[in-house]
Amino acid sequence: MPKDTPPDAAEATTARKGGAPPPDLELLVHGVGGTTPEEMLGDPRTSLVTGDETAAVYRRTVDLDAERRPPEEREGPDREGPIREAYVWCNLTSGNSSRALWLLLLPFMVANLAHWMRPPADRRERTVRTYGLFVRLVALTLTVLLIAGACEVGLDLFAWQCAGSADCAGGKSWLGFLSPENHGWWSQPGRRLALAAVLPGALTGLLWYLSNRTWSAYESSPPLERPVDESAPEAGNRPALCLPGFWYGRRIVARLRAAHTAAGFLTVAAGLTLPTTAYDRGPGGSGLQDAVGWALLTLLVMGAVAVVAVVCFRGRSETKVDGELDRITITALPGAALGVLALSVLYAAWSRPDWASSGKLPGNQAFCVIVIGEGALIVAMAVCALVLHRAAPGRTPLYGLAGPAVAVLACGLGAVLSGGVAQRIADWLDGGATPGEGPGIAPPVLLTWLATAIPALLLVLVGLLVIFTVRVWRTRERLLPTIMDGYPGERPDAVRTRRIASTIARAGLTDSAPWIVGPFALLTLLFGACAVTGAWATHQVPGRAADSAPGVVDAAAQTAQALGSWLMGVACLMLATWARRAYRSPSARRTIGILWDVGTFWPRAAHPFAPPCYAERAVPDLTWRMETWTRRHGGRLVISGHSQGSVLAAAAVWQVDHRTRGRVALLTYGSPLERLYGRWFPAYFGPTQLLSLHGEVRCWRNLWRYTDPIGGPMLLPDGSGPEVDCDALKDPLVYGRTPEHPLPAPILGHGDYQADPVFDRERAGLLARLPEQTPPPPQEGATGQMSSGRSSG
User: Fold this and answer.
1) Which of 48, 465, 651, 761 has the most crowded CB, counting CB atoms within 10 A?
2) Using 50, 70 and 90 to split pLDDT, how confident is the model at 171?
């Protein structure tokens, strides 16, 4: 036997020569929310096969050496079936309590999703690259918006307005040393601003630290280097998820992290420099200080140009495993921006005895500029999306505008977080007076206008929910006469029938989600435009701007302003409360983890501060396991995925070697591959891509139910898509009480697919369609390379 053959392969080959058949393996992948290996394998005694506390493969303890034993020597009810392994990946999203803080990064995560929602492209690579560029620029504005919000709180509300007011600072002992009434060293406005810059500067550093830490744990793990397969199709004609570098975003995340970190530092530097130079250019300013200020402004502009250039320069590299790093960029750019910030701090702290703060901090009109920039970029995204959709129309929601719509929601969430904190802190500092209604402490006028739009948006949302509630009721009434057709001979029960029909009707709401997201995003964009127009035209909060209007309009403006301000604060409070609860409660942490299971499947292609992509660890894990096991033991393998696990399973099958893919079967159940991913991410899971997967994998079956709100069939009503679906599973399995089922059977919906007898039959059918395998002749270096990875047990 060649020297590169692993010892366990030699033992398995010896066992087969002794008469034992090749073993079969079922690799189970769980769905959202996570589970335990004991629940997946149905045995309280499980053992780790390979992996760590974050993600690992488990087996029943009695099956650890199953490859070396014939099936008749195995224990348990599945002794005639395949060896079962469970891949547990839930700790990638909800294991560590500190990850609950990822909830505060929700706008960044949503913006990152917009990158992957573009329509499919047919020979329009330039438009695809332009779309990706606009998404990255929108993501950059979100970082600037968040740091600008921190600057508003620290520099404007605390250091400029409150500390500069004897009434505000006098009532707060912890701010007394900044008050001009004390004539201390910190009493000058520039020095107060320099001290307050610690808050947004520290926030930028925290975002860099979190991104760098997760980058080291997720993006920096190289995927399996497969041997070159000359028989595989050309990479250019294959789905993107087949490309070897798709799940390896090390280079782009490092580059974007440097750019966004630099943008954060430069935003803080601008918050210090702009009001200081405004004073130095005035009658009481110094010529030397004015010259230094112009030099700093020049550095700020150069830094901003460099940041935008880095973001625009290059997107993801997927056709190869790109392990190189732009070391000069990732080191010099944030370092230079930090240097500019340090110079700005020194410049602001320069003595200016006659400078006094009054009103709002000069330069806070930047919020209007940021919002206008976001709106223009989103409109440009929409143009690109429409061009792509027109070139290749398909089952894409909102006529290809799903990505721009989600980008609008991301910007709206960012405005709510930034504005909500500023509104509540201004209200607290002002002693209960309404911010902006008097001469007291007040945030920028635009933030108050944006808050005023929130009640109207909520009314629209409530109206949409009422419409869909009526639709569910009508669907249920239409289904009631058809329910008993699936249970012939059973005695009808009105309550039972109504419950089944209601479950099916509610499950169908998933397909109507675009008609909630689309109108809500459109109104958010229009209300944002109206808020910018109102703030710029009146320079007053809505309550004051409507003083000369009719009484009804004035009352409505006052009410919307007060209610919106509180709603902004409530939204921030809810996020903080959920994060704190998740930190303390494992059950709550698991619930929040479900949100991330759906939202963080995709790599960080647009925003480096988004929560990390767990698939960049899970997909290589599954790929390694399938490759090494099939090559070592030569048995048949079924990868079995439920819900989000079916998406991971499909992605992993796409990544294995072409020859290995031909001897692997895929079993999906409760799968959102077509119903959610195929519609919202058509460039990656559209009918063409799923047909390609069906053609390359040896065999594939999909189980689904009408009562499932997430999973669905792969074959569309128009006949497009792969023909892999079983008939819809009956749910509940039994309508009423029977001698075999004396108690009512539950309506399973999205769960417990393995409890259905069809599951075992379909798995056995997949194994029967797979040919008997033997280990291929070991290739020089290839087998040894694979065996150097994680142990396969």
Assistant:
1) 651
2) low
Distance CA 461, CA 457 (A): 6
Residue 418's Cβ-count burial label (10 Å; 0-12, 13-18, 19+) is buried
| Phi/psi of residue 48, nearest 5 degrees | -70, 130
Alpha-carbon distance 49 to 124, whole Å?
45
DSSP string covering 771-786: PP--PPPPPTTHHHHH
Tally the residues of the chain: 793
Whole-number Å distance between alpha carbons of 57 and 624: 11
Q: In whole angstroms, what separates CA 37 from the centre of its chain?
A: 26
Query: Residue 577: is its pLDDT beyond 80?
Result: no
* DSSP three-state, residue 234: coil
Adjacent-strand bridge partners of 636: 24
- pLDDT (mean) for 624-633: 88
In angstroms, the CA 170 to CA 162 distance is 9
Q: Are 244 and 224 in contact (CB under 8 A)?
A: no
269-311 pLDDT, tens per residue? 999 999 999 888 888 777 898 899 999 999 999 999 999 999 9
Radius of gyration for the chain, computed over Cα atoms and rounded to the nearest angstrom: 30
| Whether the Cβ atoms of residue 792 and residue 637 lie closer than 8 Å to each other | no
CA distance 540 to 636: 71
This prediction has a pTM of 0.88
Strands 699-703 and 664-669: parallel
Q: Mean pLDDT over residues 328-340, rounded?
A: 93
Structure token digits, residue 707: 């009562």
- pLDDT score at 785: 37
CA distance 110 to 410: 5
DSSP letter at 104 equals G
For residue 658, what pLDDT is reported?
A: 81
Alpha carbon 707 to chain centroid, angstroms: 26
Query: Which of 229-238, 380-389, 525-534 is predicted with the least confidence, judged by mean pLDDT?
Result: 229-238
In which region does residue 665 sit, left (phi positive, over 0), alpha (psi from -120 to 50) or beta (all else)? beta
Helix and strand tally (H, E) in the chain?
27, 7
DSSP state of 20: P
Task: Pull the structure tokens for residue 618.
Answer: 């899970």
The DSSP bridge partners found for residue 725 are 702
Phi and psi at 122, nearest 5°, equal -115, 100
DSSP 419-467: HHHHHHHHHHHTTTPPTTSSSS----HHHHHHHHHHHHHHHHHHHHHHH
Closest to 119 in 3D by CA, of 408, 409, 404:
404
* DSSP conformation letters of 145-171: HHHHHHHIIIIIIIIIIITT-HHHHHT
Where would I find the beta strands (DSSP E) of 408-540? none
* Range of lowest pLDDT (46-55, 395-404, 428-437): 428-437
Tell me the one-letter amino acid at 180. P
Q: Which residues pair with 85 in a beta bridge?
A: 27, 59
Question: Contact, 655 vs 223, CB < 8 A?
Answer: yes
Give the integer Cα–Cα distance in Å for 538 and 445.
9
Residue 461 CB neighbours (<10 A):
14
For the residues 511-525, what does the mean pLDDT come to?
90
Torsion angle, alpha carbons of 115, 121, 125, 128, to 10:
-20
Token pair of 546, please?
């409507």
Burial class (CB in 10 A: 0-12, 13-18, 19+), 521: buried
CB-based contacts of 427, cutoff 8 Å, min separation 6: 433, 434, 435, 565, 569
